[in-house]
Amino acid sequence: MDKIRRVSRLFRYLFQSLMLLPLVLVCSWLWIAPDNAQNLLSIDPLPLRMYSSLFPAEGLDIWQRLLGMAAQVVPAAVDMFLYWQMAVLFGLYAKGEIFTARNVACYRKSAYALLISQAASPFYQAAVSVVLTLNNGEGNRLITIGVDTYDLAKITIAVVILVIAWVMDEARMLKDEEALVI
User: Fold this and answer.
1) How far apart are CA 23 and CA 77, in angstroms?
2) Spatial distance between the Cα atoms of 33 and 138, rounded to a whole number of angstroms
3) Are the beta carbons of 171 and 77 closer than 8 angstroms?
4) Residue 46: pLDDT over 80
5) Contacts 24+ apart (CB under 8 A), 30-38
């Protein structure tokens, strides 16, 4: 159990530090040099890699950057919530709490956060594509929406986590019943 507690503390600190990453990504929209929108790719490669062909040659103006930041607030908030739930879960493990209702709640909330993230993804993708092509001339503005295997994998993982939460809740209830038997 000591090894579980030690590793759990490490993971709790890791997830607590990851909570800062979405804030950095949101703020990165403001730090982009107006004449070099390609910097976005090095800051946020996964969601924006697909938009590399949409970057205007002259860069992004302040309104595009503010709108891009606003579009990223919802996915960033969901990511932060997910990291928080993981930090709480590993904090419970570090305390030695394994099959408790609080653990099950962390699993469920994490799974729902992943599902919400995937439900919001098309809206985020559309918003980012509009923001990046906002200053393009008529006929050159785009709205793009896509689903790839990465999105489907996240949905699958969320469903698996929900099943794990259900199994853990059943195990917790059996453990509680067993404790009452004399």
Assistant:
1) 9
2) 25
3) no
4) no
5) 30/65, 30/66, 30/69, 32/59, 32/60, 32/65, 33/59, 34/59, 34/60, 34/61, 34/62, 35/59, 37/132
- Rounded to two decimals, the pTM is 0.75
- For the chain, what is the mean pLDDT? 81
H or E stretch at 2: helix 2-18
DSSP character string of 39-60: HHHHHSHHHHGGGGGG--TT--
Residue 83: is it exposed, middle or buried by C-beta count within 10 angstroms (0-12/13-18/19+)? buried
Residues belonging to the chain: 182
Distance CA 138, CA 104 (A): 51
What gap in Å lies between CA 121 and CA 139, rounded to an integer?
Answer: 25
Using alpha carbons, list the distances in angstroms from residue 53 to 23, 32, 84. Answer: 25, 17, 34
Q: Measured between alpha carbons, how far is residue 29 from residues 11, 22, 111, 124, 136 in Å?
A: 29, 12, 28, 14, 19
Decide if 72 contacts 51 (C-beta within 8 A): no
55-86 confidence digits (pLDDT tens): 444 467 778 888 888 888 888 889 899 999 99
